[in-house]
Write a structure and sequence with these properties.
The protein has 237 residues and is of the alpha/beta class. The chain contains 13 helices and 5 strands. The protein folds into 2 domains: 2-57; 82-236, 3-Layer(aba) Sandwich (Rossmann fold), CATH 3.40.50.
Length: 237
């Protein structure tokens, strides 16, 4: 970073000095030359938007030139790429059978997945919400999902509130209880990178295996009672 900042200052300065040496004393004294001098340093120096992006942003060129692998680059969160999901796609593409069918919960980004999937945008109702309306129990929801040939679930920790938040808060308590019953007894975790998780839908969770955290009741409670989470939200900012 230090080298980049020094270059960000030195290169524009060297170009400006070389250009000014070609001018007459009268031309160098004109006000507009000082304006272009300052503008160039601002546009290309380390404190400008371009300079700051060069210093702080991960470099896509590192992948293009083989300095860094695509997997490593896409496994890190970026300002334009929150909640990196690529590790899940990589796992699904290499370790799940081609017959696998994934249900996306709170995640609409599917670009790297090469398996059949069911998803929704934040503007569309999730198929899961419709199935929850008619399911009588967790076992019944398991039956509905398997009848729709769903074998796995992808859950985004970072995006579930944005993509499903408004739909979750409209669910009655008994529908949330059905989901929790299903999650507790029919979900087996495969991969969790802290940003998103990939889970297998199973007839029964292996005995003794703790159930993974169920985010839907948490998100619903957060939307309905934000005051309960005020301290945690302030600490996260």
């Amino acid at each position: 970073m230090a080298v980049a900042m020094v270059l960000g200052i030195a290169l524009p300065l060297a170009l400006q000095l070389a250009d000014r040496r070609r001018m007459s004393p009268d031309a160098r004294a004109r006000g507009w030359n000082y304006a272009t001098w300052g503008g160039s340093l601002y546009a290309f120096g380390p404190l400008s938007m371009l300079g700051w992006a060069w210093v702080t942003r991960p470099r896509g060129w590192r992948v293009a030139f083989g300095v860094e692998t695509k997997s490593s680059f896409l496994s890190r969160a970026q300002a334009w790429y929150p909640g990196p999901y690529y590790p899940l796609a990589e796992y699904a593409n290499t370790r799940l059978p081609e017959s696998a069918r994934l249900l996306f919960v709170g995640e609409e980004r599917t670009f790297y997945f090469k398996r059949d999937l069911v998803t929704n945008s934040e503007h569309d109702e999730s198929p899961l919400i419709g199935w929850l309306r008619v399911a009588k129990s967790g076992d019944d929801l398991h039956r509905i999902l398997t009848e729709n040939r769903l074998t796995h679930i992808v859950v985004s920790v970072r995006r579930i509130g944005r993509v499903l938040g408004r739909q979750i808060i409209k669910l009655p308590e008994d529908r949330v209880a059905v989901w929790h019953d299903f999650w507790t007894h029919h979900i087996h975790p495969l991969l969790d990178n802290g940003e998103a998780g990939l889970y297998e839908i199973v007839a029964a969770r292996p005995r003794g295996e703790p159930a993974p955290e169920d985010l839907i009741p948490v998100v619903r409670d957060l939307f309905l009672h934000p005051e309960k989470y005020k301290d945690a939200l302030n600490a996260a900012q």
